[in-house]
């Protein structure tokens, strides 16, 4: 996949092993807000999350800053600069850019463009909302005229990390987990979309 | 030195530099590479002015950190001069740079050396960096506002569509 930055660099977007993305997500859990006690009715009080606690806001700010840089480092290895490398050579010669630091912030115009590159690498590597939406569009499965949207998962009361659903879908599709991870991102998304649509159809038909 | 308009900077030498915004994430990346990550990630919790905060911070840091801070300033200057300025050195300046043995092998490196050795007075470098960084942050803020509004509208439309679909039972 090719990508052209607004500054004119041509990039070739590859993929990172899916397990690295899963490990990355697992190791970057968002900070939890502290609890505060509030009076809800008469003498009855309840502990509720304090989203305005200064230490929580500080932790959140640090988390997002670190997460952003770590995400860029994660995808950097999958992005090669096809043209416009003179920028990078100048940065390295002047000592502005370490050889082990990601050049992506230096060749993009803003955060949105950086995010697009991160999303493109994720799209190639793992299950993504974009991949699932494309698969749903391709399958075109409708129920009473409405397209079944596999991005919407009806609430069941049970919760799990995203990887659980992907793992079940992989098994449903006849793949071992390591085989599934080797597939290209859009192919993984297709299997997950197919699994979710099939489940939804069965549920609707039973109902 | 004075800033005539947000995109220009008049130097003591009389030269008016035309500035352009750089990606603030690149600036953060330089801070991070030089080990000043905490300073970027957290807002200073201080009641005084930014200058007072900087003075107190400088007073409290180790000698090694001071050396790193000087190195950081140098790298920020290189980046802001090479990428945050659209003017190129005149031919006469290039000759002068060559005469004193400066590298002018690429336009950006020539621009950095032109500003460092010829145009900017010693006490103008910090303000020059500050000007490019402020311009970059300002441009980001101006871009972000309509984007935030558009994102909110798009999300509301998306949620309304989801509600409609759930009502249909699909």
Q: Secondary structure elements and their pairing?
A:
The complex is a heterodimer of chains A (207) and B (170).
Chain A: E1 2-4, E2 10-13, H1 18-26, E3 35-41, E4 44-49, H2 54-76, E5 79-83, H3 85-93, H4 104-107, H5 111-125, H6 129-139, E6 142-143, E7 146-147, H7 162-172, H8 177-182, H9 185-206
Antiparallel strand pairs in A: 1-2, 2-5, 3-4, 6-7
Helix pairs in contact in A: 6-9, 7-9
Chain B: E1 8-10, E2 16-18, H1 24-33, H2 37-41, H3 50-60, H4 63-83, H5 91-99, H6 107-119, H7 125-168
Antiparallel strand pairs in B: 1-2
Helix pairs in contact in B: 4-6, 4-7
What would your notes on this structure say?
The complex is a heterodimer of chains A (207) and B (170). Chain A has 207 residues and is of the alpha+beta class. Chain A is built from 9 helices and 7 strands; from the N terminus they run ββαββαβααααββααα. Chain A folds into 2 domains: 89 residues, no CATH class; 78 residues, no CATH class. The two termini of chain A are 43 Å apart. Chain B is mainly alpha-helical and 170 residues long. Chain B has one domain. In chain B, a hairpin with a 5-residue loop joins strand 1 and strand 2. Chain B starts with 7 loop residues before the first strand and ends with a helix. At the A-B interface, helix 2, helix 3, helix 5, strand 6 and strand 7 of A face helix 1, helix 2, helix 4, helix 6 and helix 7 of B.
